[in-house]
Design brief:
PhoD-like_sf; Alkaline phosphatase; Purple Acid Phosphatase, chain A, domain 2; alpha+beta; Phospholipid_Metab_Enz; 598 residues; PhoD_N
């Protein structure tokens, strides 16, 4: 969704290591030292994680340092055998599954194990051992998926965790919770940019993204934009040195999907905004010692494949093509999770096969390409899978984990803005035939109420989803709802409007006036959203990070390593209404708890 002020585009729309990362600065040199120290400090310094839980299975993840100091991405170190255990209790007195697996440099010494034969809606503990060392103990949980029974279902959903954007306080807040079934990460888990600071008024300067106050304090490693496989691996490793992120992975299973920054900004099927193509004369440059016109980023598809490889190595995700195979183009990442008769969750992927983004207007008129049925966001096979899921099975709710805003968002009327112009063509508004197809499927979903869960735009939203935008003020027609989570750290409305809270508040109010189906919009806070699902309603609680109680009105809590998280507001959709209502009071205790060993 975003890019730094540089040769790229403007923002659209607007252990020793743990101690150092939590309380100290991280220059580029210190960032590399942190990864190196983690690689020296122990076999399992990059933590443990679990993911993609079903009723009877869960995936376990870790990364082994095969020899002290073997940096991720270096290719150093021999094949290593790793033992894993899953137990009913944290002390491992009742081990229920165990086994061994071998890893090597071909997968950057990462480990993935799918453990089966588990009991639905049950908490387990897991650990790894290798080279005489034992990993931290992780906690995981199977899905509340038992036919004929309705259990509580509660998750946190998040997106946009830019390292150079601030401390990961929001992850610390999620790790502290004991009431979540899983964490849903909707993309931009990491960012591809380098550390070169921007220089005001100098064209082409810098590619850093985040507050200037964190230059030399929280820097990326490698220090330049990531392009090679080693680069992507090292960047993933840096993020997994963060103690708050490690704690959240250790405490809860995750369901993840990438957006663009795991590859590069505004990616589409054959390129990206943040990728210099060999056939683009506007990006020619001369580097000392190299012929004019040689560009550093090479073939886009090769770069994307390297990004995919590192993502699959370092993230707790299964490869759906070997688990839930469906017709698709390229790699299949979309997949579905079941929670008994209460809900299903379809996780979509909207970067790999999308048509290139187009301008909102052409020649003073709305661009007709926006509605061209030949232009797609997900590939047609994935759209068929998604719409079939919405209409085929009758659960109370169908949740859709999605990257970019689904609701129509018209630009705020002002001088030079065409009436009916959409705000952002990287969103579903840029692919209106697909948007219409999904709205029609929602309308045909019978007794199943659709709920879209979205990230990307670094702000908090609660939207109705009309089939007829023009008639909504008259009849309030809506076939589903959408909740959008704030960013973990990435710049939002306030930062993109000169760090003015007043400007952010005025702008979000103007967006709501121009788009009355946006029932809630807040553009200052950073944090996460908790979604709770019952047969009667879906409720979203918005939580923001705060520095001495301030969510960002006067200070920037992203800069405060001692910041906390605090509750902001809640909105609901009552079963059968397919509309947003609220605000309402915050969530209370769960209706029931997952099983644990007695």
């Amino acid at each position: 969704m975003d890019a730094p002020l540089s040769r790229r585009t403007l923002l659209k729309g607007g252990a020793v290591t743990a101690a150092a990362l939590t309380f100290g600065g991280l220059s580029a040199e210190a960032a590399r030292a942190a990864v190196a120290e983690t690689a020296r400090s122990g076999v399992f310094g990059f933590g443990v994680a679990s993911g993609d839980p079903t009723a009877t299975e869960v995936l376990l993840w870790t990364r082994v340092t095969p020899v002290p100091g073997a940096l991720p991405g270096s290719g150093e170190g021999p094949r290593t055998q790793v033992r894993w255990e899953v137990a009913e209790d944290e002390a491992f007195g009742r081990v229920v599954r165990r086994g061994t697996v071998t890893t090597d440099a071909s997968r950057d010494h990462t480990v993935k194990v799918v453990v089966n034969g588990l009991v639905p809606y049950t908490r387990y503990w897991y650990r790894f051992t290798a080279k005489g060392a034992t990993s931290p103990v992780g906690r995981t949980q199977t899905a509340p998926d038992e036919p004929g029974r309705v259990h509580a279902l509660r998750m946190a959903f998040v997106s946009c965790s830019n390292w150079t954007g601030g401390f990961f306080t929001a992850y610390r807040g999620i790790a502290a919770r004991d009431d979540l079934d899983f964490v849903l990460h909707l993309g931009d888990y990491l960012y591809e940019y380098g550390n070169d600071p921007r220089i005001a008024g100098m064209a082409g300067s810098g590619d850093r993204y985040g507050p200037d106050a964190l230059v030399g304090v929280r820097d990326h490693q490698p220090a330049t934009e990531i392009v090679s496989l080693a680069d992507y691996r090292l960047r993933h490793a840096l993020y997994k040195t963060d103690p708050d992120l490690q704690a959240t992975h250790r405490q809860h299973p995750w369901i993840v999907i990438f957006d663009d920054h795991e590859i590069t900004n505004d990616a589409y099927a054959t390129g990206a905004e943040n990728h210099e193509r060999d056939d683009d004369p506007d990006t020619a440059y001369t580097e000392p010692g190299k012929p004019a016109g040689i560009r550093p980023e090479g073939d886009f598809l090769a770069r994307r494949e390297r990004a995919f490889q590192a993502y699959l190595e370092w993230m707790p995700i299964r490869e759906p093509a070997t688990w839930q195979p469906e017709p698709s183009q390229g790699r299949q990442f979309f997949r579905r999770f079941s929670f008994g008769d209460l809900a299903e969750l379809s996780v979509v992927e909207t970067r790999q096969n999308r048509a290139q983004q187009v301008p909102a207007t052409v020649g003073g008129a709305v661009n007709p390409a926006l509605a061209d049925p030949r232009r797609h966001l997900p590939e047609t096979e994935q759209m068929t899978w998604l719409t079939r899921g919405l209409t085929a099975r009758r659960t109370a709710w169908h949740l859709v984990g999605n990257q970019t805003v689904f609701a129509r968002v018209f630009a705020v009327p002002r001088a030079g803005v065409l009436g009916g112009q959409v705000f952002n063509t990287d969103q579903w508004d840029g692919y209106q035939a697909d948007q219409r197809t999904l709205l029609d499927a929602m309308a045909a979903s019978g007794t199943t109420d659709p709920v879209v869960l979205t990230g990307d735009i670094h702000s908090s939203w609660a939207n109705d989803l009309p089939t007829d935008w023009a008639r909504y003020p008259v009849d309030g027609n809506s076939v589903g709802v959408e909740f959008v989570c704030p960013s973990i750290t990435s710049n939002g409305f306030k930062e993109s409007l000169g760090n003015s809270a007043a400007a952010a508040t005025a702008t979000t109010a103007a967006f709501q006036a121009a788009n009355p189906w946006i029932r809630h919009l807040e553009g200052i806070g950073h944090g996460f959203t908790v979604l709770d699902v019952t047969p009667e309603r879906v409720q979203a609680d918005f939580w923001f990070i705060r520095s001495n109680g301030d969510k960002g009105l006067a200070v920037d809590p992203r800069l405060d390593p001692q910041a906390t998280v605090g509750y902001e507001t809640s909105f609901v959709s009552v079963k059968g209404s397919r509309r947003i209502s609220g605000p309402v009071g915050r969530l209370g205790a769960r209706s029931d708890q997952p099983r644990t060993a007695r």
